[in-house]
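[audit] Reproducing an earlier prediction to check determinism. Same input, same settings, fresh worker. If the tokens differ from the archived copy the diff job will pick it up downstream; this log only records the rerun itself.
[audit] input (197 residues):
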Amino acid sequence: MSIVKGIFGQKNNATTSAENVDLDVLFKEYYDRLVYFSLQFIKDKDQAEDIVQDAFIKYWNQRKTVMQDKMAIKNFLYSTVRNASLNTIRHSKVIEAYIGYIGNTEPEEPPVIEAIITAEAVAEIHAALHSLPERHRTISIIGYFDGKKNQEIADELDMSVNTVKKQKQRALELMRVKLSPEIFTAFIALGIGFFKR
């Protein structure tokens, strides 16, 4: 439950004027998580990126009508991305129906709260990984995202297997400190094979 509180809680919601909102800061903070959120609906990275970019443009054009606190802006962006993603699904279903691949089924909508929580958790894990010291981060990314085994990592980085194992263990300890217990548990569940190889 504390994950949900962290996502929807009122952290740093000082009201500011529409002119004071920095679009670059918003973009850097929310872009990756919104793309991941959209991907859970439409399964196409290029389309998801387009949808998110359009959401930022829509926000910027309507910023004077959106209450200028962090939570309202975040809600606006998530709602805009969700609606655009569902419209993309509906449009593709219409095209598929037209060419005879499917019947008259309505697009299935994934649970939105779960999709938001997943996107936020992935963003937190991504930020924690990128805050690790360079060698720990490199080993973690090669092992976790590229799926390479300890020996392959050692060969690629020209180091001993024992050094790789120790640095992976140290990365795990640092991630435990950087992540909330719930997110760390999710990280372990996703990466259990990575840490045991």
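[audit] rerun output stored. Observation attached for the diff report: Residues 1-18, 192-197 have pLDDT under 50 and may be disordered.
[audit] end
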